[in-house]
Design a protein that fits this description.
Length: 483
């Protein structure tokens, strides 16, 4: 239950939900700002470490996560997650066998075994993501994994995607999160999770009505050019024809680990005209050519630059910044790290108006609160459960556009009340995040970690309330809701 003080505080949240305007960034404020944007907020001691290192050096280090070692204890916890570390083939093999057994019998034990195993797969996938987001020093990598997963979203509740989502994140998203967009695009296009989710696996020219345009449409509308990218419905149809035969075989994947295959018998071998180009018959190469063209198209440079600027700067990002990022995209051939350097070195990113201008998504809110608490985490189930209650279950977005990162998508009275409940439970040590008994948070230590994240006005309000609710009020404050 939420105590009366917290309920009163919800009212203040509703009144003060607009972005917090702060003074011009000083060194500490700059450190807080980059930790709130390139990371999921500060952990105890992080602000001091960034200040000592220097903001520019810290940003450069985050842009090269391969140079940052993972802590041994985090690596050990990740290595212990059996279902997360399996190949896509092994995961799908078990999924198909359990499904076959469940369909072949009415035995309650077989059905229960399947449900338990599926629950373990989902639980460990969420655990791996959250453990990395909370404890990894490669924070920008985790931020970009979350960004790109939403950009190339697949829904784990659809069929075999349930078994493949860990492989999709590990094999198609994570290795390319700061690298070549063309490689990222190709990895997602050929992964069985995407092929199944957007139905390209069944698209075929071998039978009447067998052409499926779902993936071709989202490939242009969401993944590359944008809804105003200058293409027509005919371009969607022609691209779908070019991608016929891009599929995977479930049993072959389960037996051999082959995640992608081109089936020439399903491919439309006729000539096409796409985006004003005449496409001669070339089999699998037609699809590869399409990805080559899309990855460097002028429309994609603006579309994804806008999305990145919206994520890192403001819901309505400055057009001049987006234009410079698009130019950087074009000059670098879609090198993600180069575009991010342009973004992070911009005056717009470090401007006083950018500090606290973004409203945290449920994912950002939950992860940043746990990071600020400094509490050890081995049990992520309460965190995953909270995110589901807040409307953002991990891997649970059903639509291909993924979760939004704007204030309009997440700011509402019911969600704020649920956030307050989570803040109260976390601050009171009631979430059972670790094997040790729950520990109530010390408000003074928490405030020291958050530094200028929380305004002087909010600090004064918090200090005038009983000690036992101060930590919850900090984590539930309008200031902490922004980043």
């Amino acid at each position: 239950m939420i105590d009366r003080t917290a309920i009163v505080f919800v009212a203040s949240l509703l009144a003060a939900a607009a972005p917090v305007v702060r003074a011009a960034p000083a060194t500490e404020q700059q450190a807080v700002h980059v930790l709130n944007r390139l990371a999921f907020g500060p952990r105890p001691g992080d602000v001091e470490r960034v200040r000592a290192m220097g903001v520019e050096r810290w940003i450069d280090a985050q842009l090269h996560p391969d140079r940052i070692a993972l802590p041994a204890d985090l690596q050990a916890r990740l290595d212990a997650l059996e279902t997360v570390n399996r190949s896509a083939g092994a995961s799908l093999d078990e999924f198909l066998d359990l499904r076959k057994q469940a369909r072949a019998t009415d035995d309650d034990d077989a059905l229960q075994q399947r449900r338990q195993r599926q629950a373990q797969v989902a639980r460990e996938a969420a655990q791996a993501r959250l453990l990395r987001a909370i404890d990894s020093p490669r924070q920008l990598e985790e931020v970009m994994v979350e960004f790109w997963f939403n950009h190339f979203n697949v829904y784990s509740g659809k069929g075999v995607v349930r078994a493949l989502v860990s492989s999709y994140e590990r094999d198609a998203i994570r290795p390319y999160a700061l690298g070549s967009f063309r490689e990222l695009l190709g990895a997602t296009a050929k992964h069985p999770a995407m092929l199944f989710y957007l139905d390209n696996a069944v698209s075929s020219a071998a039978k009447p009505g067998g052409l499926n345009e779902n993936y071709a449409r989202e490939l242009m509308e969401l993944h590359t050019l944008g809804v105003d990218g200058g293409y027509s419905q005919r371009d969607v149809t022609e691209l779908a024809r070019m991608l016929t035969g891009w599929t995977f075989d479930q049993r072959r994947l389960a037996r051999t680990g082959e995640t992608f295959r081109f089936d020439a018998k399903r491919h439309d071998g006729g000539a096409k005209t796409w985006l004003g180009q005449d496409i001669a018959p070339a089999g699998e190469r037609e699809g590869e050519h399409a990805l080559d063209v899309l990855a460097v198209h002028p429309a994609i440079a603006h579309h994804i630059s806008f999305e990145l600027a919206q994520y890192f700067v403001a819901d309505a990002p400055p057009p001049a910044l987006v234009a410079r990022m698009a130019a950087s995209w074009t000059a670098s051939g879609g090198d993600i790290r180069t575009v991010l350097k342009t973004l992070f070195s911009s005056a717009e990113f470090m401007a006083p108006a950018a500090a606290g201008a973004k409203f945290k998504t449920p994912y950002q809110f939950v992860v940043s609160a746990v990071r600020a608490s400094g509490l050890p985490v081995t049990n992520t189930a309460p965190l995953a459960g909270t995110m589901s209650q807040l409307g953002m279950p991990l891997y649970g977005c059903q639509t291909p556009d993924g979760y939004k990162n704007t204030q309009d998508a997440w700011l509402n009275p019911d969600a704020l009340t649920r956030r307050i409940a989570f803040a109260s439970a976390l601050a009171g040590g009631k979430l059972a995040l670790d094997a040790a008994p729950g520990t109530a948070l010390d408000a003074g230590a928490l405030q020291a970690t958050l530094a200028t994240t929380v305004s002087v006005r909010t600090q004064d309000i918090v200090r005038r309330n009983p000690d036992k609710v101060q930590a919850a009020m900090l984590l539930g404050s309008p200031d902490f809701m922004q980043h």
